[in-house]
Amino acid sequence: MMAGVDTATLSDWIHRFRDAVVENKDRLTELDSAIGDADHGSNMARGMDAVVAKLDAGVPATVDELLKSVGMTLVSSVGGASGPLYGTFFLRMGMDAGAVASLDDAALAKALRAGLDGIVARGKAEAGDKTMFDAMSPAVDALDVGVARGADLAAATAAAATAAAAGRDATVPLVARKGRASYLGERSAGHLDPGAASTALLFDALAAAVADAT
Ligand code: ADP
Ligand code: MG
């Protein structure tokens, strides 16, 4: 396709995210063992395995049905904070996208922004709180900038992935102000946030799916 993403590309994105989460399961759990309860890798792997199992039973025909299925499965299959947060991200993204077969570049950026806003509505995280927000917010900003400039979507999503990785790495010195890590206070500094790490995987997966489709 010339631009944007269709349901096949979105499904590929979700599959690639599942694969990345499973591949990095031990790493994500190790990060969570330093400042949380050592379950982020298993939470995300369990959730994304359930998501992919449901999608493989039949990919929905519209973008909103696909994304709402992903979100609902995450909310219902992940016990930790990350399940409802990622679940809300996909649900809100789907609601914004609507019953369409594909999204153009601007609609994709807008839907991702709606997903991010959903995470904020649910978890109240702000910049610098040492959460997944700190990787996702710069990624969504970078995608907006790329799309506004008229960059092709492969380049814009690659820039978003780079921004997510930078945001992830920038969580290391931060003191956590949200979630379980906040219970540690100052002792949470010096560690990378596990949710920011999984969010970087989410945007890597998006860039790879888009690059592969174009
Ligand atoms: P739990 O903390 O319940 O064990 P996980 O370990 O799966 O859940 O996920 C932890 C991650 O969730 C954190 O690393 C952080 O990025 C993210 N997180 C926690 N609380 C919030 C929040 N209020 N807003 C945004 N992200 C959050
Ligand atoms: Mg945890």
Question: Characteristics of this structure?
Answer:
214 residues, mainly alpha, two-stranded antiparallel ribbon, 70% helix, globular, binds adenosine-5'-diphosphate, binds magnesium ion
What class would the helix/strand composition place it in? mainly alpha
Bound molecules: adenosine-5'-diphosphate, magnesium ion
The overall average pLDDT, rounded, is: 96
Number of strands: 2
Global shape = globular
Order of helices and strands: EHHHHHEHHHH
Write the layout of secondary structure elements.
Layout lengths: L4 E2 H17 L1 H11 L4 H17 L6 H15 L4 H16 L4 E2 L1 H19 L9 H17 L3 H17 L24 H20 L1
Bound molecules: adenosine-5'-diphosphate and magnesium ion.
Short précis:
The chain has 9 helices and 2 strands, in the order E-H-H-H-H-H-E-H-H-H-H. The protein is an all-alpha fold and 214 residues long.
Description:
It contains nine helices and two strands. The longest helix has 20 residues, at 194-213. With 214 residues, it is mainly α. The mean pLDDT is 96. The structure holds adenosine-5'-diphosphate and magnesium ion. The site of adenosine-5'-diphosphate has 24 residues, from helix 3, helix 5, helix 6 and helix 9.
